[in-house]
Amino acid sequence: MTPNGPLSTGDAQATDTRRRTHDRVDARAAPPPPPLPAKRVFVGLVALGLAIAVVAVVGTSLTPVYGDLAPWRSTPVADLRTSPTTTGWTTDLAREVLPGVPVRCAGFTSQQTTGRYVVVTGTPPPLGSTTACSALSVSQVQSTIALLDTDTGRVVWTRDLAASFPTLAGPVAVDGEQVLPEASRVLVQLTVADHAALASLSMTTGDVTSSIELPSGAANSVPLVEGTLAMYSSTAAREGSTRWILADVRTIDQPRWEGLLPDATPPVLTDRAGFAEVSGRSSIIDGSTGHVHRLGDGSVSLSSAIVDDAGLVTTQTEPSGIVISGWSARGLRLWTRAGVGALSGTSRDCVLVVLPGTTRGTCIDQVTGRTRWTTDVGNGAFALGIAGQTNDAMMVYRDKGDQTEIDVFDGRTGRLLYPIDFAPVTYSALASRTTGYLELFSDSGSPTGIGAFDMTSGRELWHLDEAETRDTLFWGGQLVRVSASGVATQLVDRSRTVLRE
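RE: above sequence
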């Protein structure tokens, strides 16, 4: 399990179809009861009313509703208020994803994701393992992927990509993948006969709709992806620079723009455009046409730019001090602020800046640039939102040397809501409507488990230690455990309480 910045960032804004669970009761026909006297009817109605009131009160206490906003950068997340049990859906991945491959020859994994659908890939036995597996089995494990619906546990499709690259003879290995609901595609990184390649697959069928084989020697780095756009490096053209390509993920083999970019200033991507230093000037690369336009006066620094929900935030050091600017996803300047401090992260709708030499943090509205509030955020503060949260709380991290300190602030007022103190090192994972989830690590960086806290009070609800979570990840909005035999099981609240919109 690895810490997430934005718990990944990528893709976290999906608006997937939501599941509603309906319990059905098979009622059998029965003869009507005899009529009751009026007094007994009245007493019965009163008792029924009291029972309904008690159930309503108990139900409210068991399933509180704290936030009323749409889940941020995530599918709705399961609300696990009690220590979860393995009584949810179960899927035999070994049988459905890799039929015919011995169970001992494959493990299963998926990148932690905030979307409803996840790509599951096989992992072959480690080198030097005494497990006897044929070369054919190992090859199939490395080249096969499957799409899984985390709401139901259903495997939508499975594909062996070994036959999808006929022009390159050699083994095929899946190196990474991203599910892109806005484009109805899965973007897969592969190594094909020692060549890096990208393939765009249909989310519906798993068929390869387009692909591109990169030149020999090209680094198989993770592409930047936002919405339906992808920006990926092709090959180093000269020392200190790399050729980059901007394309629609649905036609990944048809570049809309390509050119040399300096390695010292990596490009940034929104769902409408790429932002990069082109020919020595800060520039916007239009995602629809590939046309290049100047960003600002051409001297805007992109070295520390951050993509947020409004578009892009840049910071620049001028003789007069630090200047923070907000830009739309297309590169239109929204606002500029000077004298407020240095960029220290963003949350759901705040840009946090901290005045150097002080602990005073200011929340600037992402869209308008206006100051919302100013408060003490401490030394070394960096702000993040929590994927899946349904409120506008801001999580502020502070590196205290031997531990990570986290404070949660009200995004509207700047009021400190509560601190989080679970383990020496803690990272936010996801949030549901009432419950937040954390990944816990030791001082040395080894994972120690998963913790859950109440989103209003910060009170610890439960935690699972490392032995219980070694093969447990959040897949979409569900907590899923994969056994050594390749069986995936959804972990659910004991009361089966899952709050959804």
